[in-house]
Design a protein that fits this description.
Elements lengths: L1 E16 L1 E6 L10 E11 L4 E6 L5 E7 L3 E14 L15 H6 L23 H10 L6 H15 L1 E2 L10 H7 L1 E2 L1 H14 L4 E8 L16 E8 L6 E5 L4 E2 L4 E7 L2 H4 L2 E6 L4 E11 L3
Parallel strand pairs: 7-8
Antiparallel strand pairs: 1-6, 1-15, 2-5, 2-14, 3-6, 4-5, 9-10, 9-13, 10-11, 11-12
Helix pairs in contact: 2-5, 3-5, 4-5
Length: 293
């Protein structure tokens, strides 16, 4: 599938900011045969006084900007064309949950994709005994890693309600678990904590998801949004695979990857600081449009 993606993030400040620094991670990745960024740009209004484009530890493209002049609003705009392919299905060669530990121990790499980075606590995700107990009741030691991830993905889809506004961007995973409601970020965090409690390396994926309107209805411009799902290390033979617990599916050609990390903190679309006071408002609109070839 070939997609044209447009994203606008707008900020309006009650009192002009006299200075600001931001880091932005919204540019889609190039990932071998499954995803290729053909072209992409990130622009800002007003123009920042300083800009630095770089790649972070987890190999995500990022942009750091600084504003020194007063400004009462800011807009970030992404335009990109991306090609995403569905890889052919493969047999389940992942080890059992009981045997995965020995494969992790045999992995001596500490590069960005090494499973060791995704096994323990991370900035947003700490111990959650209630999630661990829930996961232990679902996953048995003799299950393969793929079977375990699929089972947890399905249970989150069945037991949790997608309800925007029920949680906030900083709601802990254990709180979302107690509520049994939230958004894609919450469901991804719960699944990651559950897998890590079983000794399975799991990480967070930030990206875009093409949405398909109901039959007979026109697609609404700006209706798409950034999405989140989970990547799971399925042993040496298989490597990383991805599950989307919000929709109870494996990530496919409708999923466009922007960033990989341990949790949301590593791949937040925009983080930064302002020199200002008062309130501000934020708007976001995303269009993911298939390109006819």
């Amino acid at each position: 599938m070939l997609y044209d993606i447009t994203m606008k993030i707008g900020y309006l400040y009650e009192v002009p900011a006299s200075g600001a620094r931001h880091m932005v991670r919204v540019l889609p990745l190039t990932l071998g045969p499954c995803q290729r960024l053909i072209a992409g740009t990130i622009s800002f209004a007003p123009q920042p006084e300083e800009r630095s484009d770089f790649v972070d530890f987890f190999k995500n493209p990022a942009v750091a900007v600084s504003f020194r002049r007063p400004h009462d609003k800011m807009e970030i705009r992404l335009q990109a064309r991306v090609q995403v392919e569905n890889l052919p299905p493969q047999a389940d060669f992942s080890p059992t949950v009981a045997k995965l530990g020995s494969e992790i121990s045999d992995c001596w790499s500490v590069d960005a994709d090494a499973p060791h980075h995704f096994l323990n606590d991370s900035p947003r995700l700490g111990p959650a005994p209630e999630i661990a107990a829930w996961a232990k009741n679902i996953v048995k030691p003799e299950m393969s890693i793929r079977e375990a991830a699929t089972a947890l993905c399905k249970r989150i889809y069945q037991e949790f309600k997608y309800l925007p506004g029920a949680t906030k961007v900083d709601t802990p995973a254990k709180e979302a678990f107690r509520l049994k409601k939230g958004v894609c970020q919450d469901f991804a965090h719960v699944m990651i904590v559950a897998l890590r409690s079983l000794g399975v390396p799991a990480g967070y994926v930030s990206g875009f998801l093409r949405t398909i309107p109901p039959p007979g209805k026109e697609r609404l411009e700006g209706a798409d949004a950034m999405h989140a799902w989970v990547r799971v290390w399925c042993g040496r033979a298989t490597g990383w695979m991805e599950w989307d617990p919000t929709n109870d599916i494996m990530a496919g050609s409708d999923h466009i990857r922007v960033g990989f990390g341990r949790d949301y903190a590593d791949v937040a679309p925009v983080i930064g600081v302002l020199k200002s006071y008062g309130s501000h408002s934020t708007t976001q609109a995303v269009d993911v449009i298939p390109v006819k070839t």
